[in-house]
Amino acid sequence: MAILFSNAAEDMIRHRSARVTTARVQVLAALLKAGRALTHHEIESRLSRTHAIDRVTIYRVLEWLTRQRFAHKIPGDDRVWRFNVADEEHAGQHAHFKCNCCDRVFCLKDTGNIHSVKLPSGYRAQQLELTVKGLCAECLPGNKLHKLSANKKPPCKLANYPQALGK
Amino acid sequence: MAILFSNAAEDMIRHRSARVTTARVQVLAALLKAGRALTHHEIESRLSRTHAIDRVTIYRVLEWLTRQRFAHKIPGDDRVWRFNVADEEHAGQHAHFKCNCCDRVFCLKDTGNIHSVKLPSGYRAQQLELTVKGLCAECLPGNKLHKLSANKKPPCKLANYPQALGK
DNA sequence: CTCTAAATGCAATAGAGTTGCATAACACGG
DNA sequence: CCGTGTTATGCAACTCTATTGCATTTAGAG
After folding, report:
1. pTM of the entire structure?
2. Going along chain B, which residue ranges are E strands?
3. Which of A27, A33, B79, B108 lies at 20 to 30 Å from B41 by C-alpha?
4. Strand D closer than 7 Å to the CB of B54?
5. A120 interaction partners in chain B (CB closer than 8 Å)
6. How many CB atoms lie within 10 A of CB A52?
């Protein structure tokens, strides 16, 4: 299972004819496996079980992956970068969903036409960043997925604010 | 001139029947006068000329203004909060423009229908944050406004990258 | 196998933002 | 106009994410 992501990561890096190092492979594999945006901290703790890699190296690898367009960097409202595997088709137009409850960030595929925003004259748009905040399927009460599984961040910080959860 | 903004700020705070302090009045006045989103640092340096206020107090006043809905807090890609005078009509739907060159942030009025973004089933949207990045009227070359005026941040960090400026 | 450029690990640093606590001041009642 | 209690402020110390400098290690080409 996990080995498959490592292989995929290794291939991706090798095809870019870049140096294949364990740090690069493992960080990229972690992102591929996660399927959602991860913080530096999340990556570090995931790798610590099997391949302990220095904090700074992880920062540098993430920066490298971003420059190579293997990943993209998402600014958050908690001053923490999150990194997601880059999606070729949505280059320059990123839409993300951040759960107000568990803080996890997901990429949104169907972004609609957010290009409809009009700029004042003389302004030129180059990139778009859209963040939708709300409640994810696991945190929305009444949803059968509402049990948090292993790699989730408990407890729900909104648990004490029923109003915020729509009750 | 500046005194007008102070008066306006004072009125706004007094009408909320909250304690009118110089820190609150001056910070709010600075935001009103700026007409764009300011960082904590920008506010601090503006006030230092006339009314020196402690860093921490400014942080606390900004937090208070945000809670009172006098201002709203904009997350940036440089891990720095920016604060803008709150706009009643666009509550919960914020669109901002950030210049890649001078780093200034402006509120966008015409947000189009960015609600068109579709969420996966089981997800609930609560707030939207849209940031358009690009070049503002003063940084876009060929524009007659291209001379940076006094309160701008020189030099343009993109000056050495003609490609980024669209040349 | 050897060599060199590139990547890594460690320590120190930077910078935004936060917290604890003693002091100051706003506004209210007399 | 003056005392009084609640609230805001100033200062110092601290937290946390992220960055930088430098010596050491390593990937991969020859």
Report:
1. 0.84
2. 38-39, 71-74, 82-85, 93-99, 105-107, 124-135
3. B108
4. yes
5. 106, 137
6. 9
